[in-house]
């Protein structure tokens, strides 16, 4: 059961996190790129980054509790900490901001928040941008699309310029669906690139999140944590565990984007 410690909190976090991220992305995308002609790589990146930051702002406390539960192992003679035990311990720690904010213990649940936001900007931005770029290639490249696009059965003549298309029919032409394996590949590659680009900040974030567990009487900031990682392991220290991260992130992002696309088609949005 130790391998699943903190799993319940992960499930409680992932539902609102994913929902907020994809809904926010669609909203930011509609603002920045109301038409397909206005789509650019930079706007895709910005929309993805803003969506990632928005989702983190609402779900970060659950992420901190999840990391603490996964890290905090049971000591001999003591029961395994529960979610409530972890929450109480976080509240008892020194303030995670400057001393002038010491009375606001709620900020303890945002320990490591700034590096998380800093990491989410490249992670979410690169993730959505990479996914969009590869899907466009798989959909419209004359050499690749015959193998990656799913066969379509139109109830109208797509070559007739005089026909008035419904919004649903127009979406089908603008974004023809891909085969399942192609959708999964697009998402997996997006996760791979995004994880690589933001992993050093992920390492710093996790070190700060468990800092209160290792040294409950001391708050260590972003700069101190970065220096400590470099002092102990050098540049390689910022990529410790990256291969394990790939094993988790690549299939997770692949399935996430595939389900996202399938649900949009199912709901006709």
Automatic annotation (TrEMBL):
Record carries keyword Transmembrane helix: yes
Membrane-topology annotation of the record: Multi-pass membrane protein
UniProt GO cellular component terms: mitochondrial membrane
Family matches, as InterPro entries: MCP (IPR002067), MCP_dom_sf (IPR023395), MCP_transmembrane (IPR018108)
Coiled coil: none
Transmembrane segments: 238-260
Record keywords: Membrane, Mitochondrion, Repeat, Transmembrane, Transmembrane helix, Transport
Localisation: Mitochondrion membrane
Main localisation: mitochondrion
Residues in Solcar repeats: 1-31, 39-137, 182-266
Highest taxon, organism lineage: Eukaryota
Any one biological process term the GO annotation gives: transmembrane transport
PANTHER family attached to this UniProt entry: SOLUTE CARRIER FAMILY 25
Family, similarity comment: Belongs to the mitochondrial carrier (TC 2.A.29) family.
Protein name, as recorded: Mitochondrial carrier domain-containing protein
Organism listed in the record: Mucor circinelloides f. lusitanicus
